[in-house]
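chain below, 325 aa
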Amino acid sequence: MTTPISLTSNKAATPAVDATNTSPDGGLAVHGFAEHGHGVEGGSTKSKGVVGTSTDFQGVYGHSDNNAGVVGESATWVGVYGKAKGGAGTIGVMGEARSDNDGVTGNGTGVYGASTGGNGVEGSSVGSKGVYGHSGTNAGVVGESQDFDGVLGVSHNPAHAGISGHNPGGMAGFFDGDIVVTGDIRVAGADCAERFDAADQVVAPPGTVMALDDTGALRVADSDYDGRVAGVVSGAGAFRPAVILDSGPGGDGTDRIPVALVGKVYCKVDGTRAPVAVGDLLTTSQTPGYAMRAGDPGRAFGAVLGKALAACHDRSLIPILVTLQ
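prediction:
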């Protein structure tokens, strides 16, 4: 059984116990071991419980085979506090992990970083994400700034984006406010479409030629040279809309039909009455939902929906250039 030793010192900065090891072979100045308790414990009422300093290595080093190497706990403040007092490149707290483990992890506010002149939190990786955020029910990453950009993304590779959003089948990005673009806007789609309300019980798959009814709603075009032609339902064939205007459900909550107004779109074309060649103007036809060659200039004015980009001798889905006129 070990008998506790109680030593006191009344002089400032004078240790109650002093142990020194100056051997060039290394070794320990103080060693503490306990079978079930603390190997070494330090406590203080007004200052640090334990202080470790080193000139060329770690001031305090903790190691455990099966648990935490170092644990910090506080009832009213920070469990572990790190301060960097040197110049550029010094770090208050650093976490490092090998393989696919975590360098730093936490609960509550998992990681909190604050700085008056440098980066509050910085992440760096050679082969994976520099900073990764994930949430089961809320935002994975939130950026907020009082006087600058909330989130700033920079890529030094011209083939990759500064900010990239991905959501297969859903919205990849949402902006509540103005958008300023100083470069080109490049989109993969081929046409500019706008959503319209449809007349009751209208079935109009992509590629269908549409016209307006007396209420301004869409109906399937079914007459030759219809001056109420509105366009072609977008999304057929290999083309998808690049921009969809007036998105959202209609007044009754139903989905509305996206109609291509400008650009390239696949369209149902009837070439049985008059063969269609590349460059021919197209208009509505009596074949419901199909376009045909506008061979009568006198009737075509105001009823032209586009120009053929491929030939058609039967009833086919071909690419056209939408040019309402």
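Strands lie at 191-196, 209-212, 218-220, 229-233, 241-245, 257-270, 281-284, 291-293, 304-308, 315-323. The CA atoms of residues 187 and 242 lie 6 Å apart.
thats it, cya
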